[in-house]
Design goal:
It is a single chain. The protein is 40% helix and 26% strand. It is of the alpha+beta class and 315 residues long. It has two domains: 171 residues, Ribosomal Protein S5, domain 2 (2-Layer Sandwich), CATH 3.30.230.10; 127 residues, GHMP kinase, C-terminal domain (Alpha-Beta Plaits, 2-Layer Sandwich), CATH 3.30.70.890. A hairpin with a 6-residue loop joins strand 10 and strand 11.
């Protein structure tokens, strides 16, 4: 039996602007995806006892295709990551399955190789993707992705003419509360909405530039463990994203409520619904406020731990 687990992630700065060459930062969180893979004595590959099917297991199917695995396997999975909440559940699944398969096959287990393969799988399944989720799930800690190569460079990822430089970022111990609105909003229409605004408005270009400056400033504050400063930047980043038109009344309500007990709060991910995130040292109070306003709260902590093969008891 080969075991692997990977963390989820939350994006704390840089949504949408990252599509225009600006940097973004994501932090690994202490909720994980777990998988065990063994060779099967049956004539089919199974996932939690059910036959492997692309309809239900698209990321696993693509992982097997990526590594050209033809043997029948028994795959068991368990997740602590709620899908559709901005925690990077699909990236965690992809990285863990690839890690377990590579260990089972005796292949290269370097973070760079796994992160690059995982991004390729996500891109193929979704039709488009950023490598920030898969790189964070692989490396742990915090990841900054940018078009420029900077200090603490890890690896470069290229796809269809685009280049992403992946960087390590140190992080202090951080506590977040994610609040899910329960409002589902597909990412592509929101990306297109911002693109149209960006192409016809210099004001939108200035907003994107301002978000990029926030990301750069946040790196300094992370190193200094300046939670108040980080919270102020989160509030500012949220305001800029709202001007871009990717917020939602339910998001605004949750953000407003969370700020009563937080250093700062903002939407996380594409917006239009989905989730917000608050940086706080009063997580129970923030969670209570989010719940009171109709959201579903998740209390999370940052983690240094990326991909792991040590067994669930060590996670």
């Amino acid at each position: 039996m080969t075991y692997c687990s990977t963390p989820g992630k939350v994006i704390i700065f840089g949504e949408h602007a990252v599509l225009y060459g600006e940097p973004a930062i994501a932090v690994a969180i202490n909720r994980r995806f777990h998988c065990d893979i063994t060779e099967s004595n049956r004539d089919i590959t199974t996932v939690n006892g059910y036959p492997l099917a692309r309809r239900y297991h698209s990321y696993i199917v693509e992982c097997l295709n990526k590594l050209e695995v033809e043997d029948e396997l028994e795959i068991k999975t368990e997740t602590e990551l709620a899908s559709g909440t901005g925690m990077g559940s699909s990236a965690a699944i992809t990285v863990a399955i690839l890690g377990a398969l590579r260990k089972l096959l005796g292949e290269d287990l370097s973070e760079e190789t796994i992160a690059k393969d995982a991004f390729s799988v996500e891109f193929d399944v979704q039709g488009n993707a950023s490598p920030i989720d898969t790189s964070t799930s692989t490396h742990g800690k915090a990841i900054m992705v940018s078009e420029k190569k900077e200090k603490n460079f890890l690896w470069k990822i290229e796809r269809e003419g685009r280049i992403w430089n992946i960087h390590h970022r140190d992080i202090p111990d951080l506590t977040f509360v994610v609040g899910n609105t329960g409002v589902h909003s597909p990412t592509p229409p929101l990306v297109e909405k911002v693109r149209k605004f960006y192409e016809r408005s210099n004001f939108a270009k200035e907003i994107i530039d301002d978000i990029g400056e926030i990301v750069e400033e946040s790196y300094i504050l992370l190193k200094e463990d300046d939670l108040e400063g980080l919270g102020e930047l989160m509030d500012k980043n949220h305001g800029l994203l709202s001007i871009l038109g990717v917020s939602h009344p339910k998001l605004e309500s949750l953000v407003k409520g969370a700020r009563k007990y937080s250093y700062g709060a903002k939407l996380t991910g594409a917006g239009g619904g989905g989730s917000m995130i608050a940086l706080t040292d009063r997580p129970e109070e923030v969670a209570k406020e989010i719940k009171k306003r109709g959201g579903k709260p998740y209390i999370l902590k940052s983690t240094e731990r990326g991909i792991s093969y040590e067994g669930k008891d060590h996670d």
